[in-house]
Amino acid sequence: MEKCKEERKLMKETVISDSSTFDDLHSFSDDDGENCFQSDNLDDDGTTHHLEYSEQICSSCVKKRRLTQTNLFQLWGVKNPADHGKSKNVKQTNLFQMWGFENPGKSKSVQKTTTSLASCKTQRVCPFYKRIPGTPFTVDAFRYGPVKGCSAYFLSHFHADHYIGLTKVWSHGPIYCTNLTARLVRICLNVSPSFICPLELGTEYDLKGIKVTMLDANHCPGAALIHFRLPNGQCYLHTGDFRASKLMQSYPLLANQRINILYLDTTYCNPKYRFPSKEEVLKFVVGVTRTYLNNYPKTIVVVGAYSIGKEHVYFAISKALGVKIYANASRRRILQSFGWAGISENLSTNRKDTPLHILPISSLKFEMLEHYLASQDRQYTRMLAFRPTGWTYSETIGENLSLIKPTSKGNITIYGVPYSEHSSFTELQEFVQFLRPEKIIPTVNVGNAVYREKMQSYFQQWLKA
DNA sequence: GCGATCAGCT
DNA sequence: CACAGCTGATCGC
Q1: Which fold does the domain A126-272+423-464 belong to in CATH?
Q2: Were A125 and a residue from A8, A56, A236, A459 both cysteine, which residue would form a disulfide, CB within 3.0 to 4.6 Å?
Q3: Boundaries of each DNA repair metallo-beta-lactamase domain copy (predicted)?
């Protein structure tokens, strides 16, 4: 134990020195004594930065996995008797409690032996594609501690994989984001308001001599594309997470404007991802719901959702059926914070008032849904559930939604629907061919050199034409 | 005891 | 690989 502690300390020091090396290579001090990221650390072939793509971790610690307890009770699907005593002390936040009733007993079929690495902390280094060269800015880089040379931290949108590391003890610098994202950072993460700097969409700001504009990203509420114009005339666009749309082609900062570097959300940068438009998916979801309710009027409709995003799936059902939306208090609070007109009238605080319920997407499993249905005072005889996720796709289904077949068990039916808030391959192509940027830096799927090369070859093909 | 963070999992 | 998290475990305070 003590040995491990020492190793961790040693590793931390090692990593910090590595980090300094990186910064020494890629940053300089300007007249104010503030560090900026140089723009000349970027090569044209896109192959010379493999090291920078991988966030640094301690390999020696990874090898030293230490077994903790194997939970045989879970392995057997039996309740751990010791949990009875614990339950009084342990703060439980499981779904059953969220719904307001007892956990019927965890019976995960297979629970792997748990291992622990927390004792061997990994220290990551901010990868180059999160830094904006020639500026003291980073985008979605909160998990690296204070980033050397960074005096302003941008948050593109409020999803956990982008704000990870941002907590109420944050003190490494100002956080720039849209108004809506700023509210979420404050109310959900309790970050000190003194660090939160909300920016109006579509308004140009001068931040440390750089012209910055946030543009709607057509992703989740509050998500932004970030446009930077440097004093030397260079323009960079960071898409954060986005779904490219025709509307973006009318943004004054994008139409007929030169973009020198495009930091691109390449989540679905593969021709196999050809999913339908959001509108088509919404139409499909509403159609399925109507048909189902015609056949089985006593049906409860459930939509799975993450913290924010994909709200229109249940808004569409709500509107089409003329029913309110039930969501738990924390989700209602978040939805209210969007400041959307008329949202309050469509939310219900009582689950008995409406057949349309929103649940965490992780709870869309038959066992949990059966329990949820059983808890509804026999109001309903069936359940229809939707799981909206971009990964719910199949090459054969492609854009033909009628090929989607639900999975059913007993009186519960679950539809996976390809409602995506990221660009499809085609949308990416159109966006890049519209923007014709000088250079493209992918920000997703970059952990693997083969993928990186594949993506760069797509970019080249698109821009050849 | 609480919050932060991480590996593993989906 | 990643979506956008969740869970359990551990550690620092």
Answers
A1: Metallo-beta-lactamase; Chain A (3.60.15)
A2: A56
A3: 343-448
